[in-house]
Amino acid sequence: MPRITLDAAPLRLTIDPELGASITDFSIEGPCGDRYPLMRRAPDQPTEPGQCASFVMAPWTNRIEHAAFDFAGTHHRLRANFPDGTAIHGVARDAPWRITDRTPVSARLVYDSRAHESANFPFVFACVQRFELAPDHLEVELSVTNLDDRPMPAALGHHPFFPRVLFAAKEEALLHAPVAGRYPADRCLPTAHAAPDEHCARLSTNAPVGNHGLDDVFAGFAGRATITWPGSGVRLTMDCSDALDHLVVFTPRLDPADPAAPPLPWFCVEPCSAVNNAFNLAARGWAHTGTRTLEPAQTLAATVFYHIERL
Question: Rounded to two decimals, what is the model's pTM?
Answer without folding.
Answer: 0.96
